[in-house]
Amino acid sequence: MDTLFSLKDVMAILKKSWLWIVAFAVGGLVTASLACYFLMTPVFEMNSQVIVSQMETSQNAVSQNAEVQANLQLVNTYRVLITSPRVLSEVSEEMNHTYTTAELADKITVSTEQDSQVINITAKDKNPDIAAEISNQAAIAFQKVTPKVMKVDNINILSEAQPTSDASPISPKPALLALIGLFAGTLIGVIIAFMRNLLSNKFKDEKDLDMLETPLLGSIGKLPESHSKAIRKGRKKK
Questions:
Q1: Can you give the pTM of this predicted structure?
Q2: Separation between Cα atoms, residue 20 and residue 199, nearest integer Å
C-alpha cells in the first residue's frame, strides 16, 4: 500500500511552505508573550515554618528518641489541622474576613520534609505582602489552636514569611510560555502546510492523471538552471 507522503514529499512541502511555518511560529511566540505580560496575573509565594518541639528535656536517650518519633507521627495530623476550618477561621478573623475559609484553603499549602519535625506553611497570592500575611497568620493561628485541640503545647514558630521588594512571581513563567507558543505556532504552521497540499486540486505529477484514467498527450520539460540563465542572457543581448 502506498504511503500518503514519502520523505521526499514531506521535505518538498516543508521547503515550499517554510514562510507559512515561520510566520505561525513567530505568531505563536508573540501571542504567548503578550498573554503572559498582559492577560495573566503574577502569583507570589511566601513561606513560614513551624516546628513540633519536644515537651521537656530528658537525659534518657531512649525517652528522647521515643518522643521524637511520637512528634513525627503527629506531623501528618498537624498538616491537616493547619488547613482545617478551625484554624482558617482564626486567620480569616485576623485579616478582617477579607478571605473566606474556602478561599484561604485554596491559597495555603502545607508540606514537610521526610522524617522532619519542621512544617512549611506556604501561601500564594498576587500580592507578596498578602501572601506573607496569610502564611504568618496561619502559623500563629495553628500555634494558638493546637493546645486547645490536641491538649499539647509543642508548636513553635521557626521562621516568618518576609516579603522583599525584589520578590519574583512563581507564575506565569515567561520563558516557558514563550517556548510553548513557539512550538504550538510551528506545529500549526506545519499542519496547515500539509492540509493545503492535501486539499489542493492541482495536478502535480503525471501519476495524478491515472486516477482520472486520462491519457497523457505530452509534457513540457523543465530546463536546467544553467540553460535558463544562458537563455536569459541571450535575450538581454538582443
A1: 0.67
A2: 16
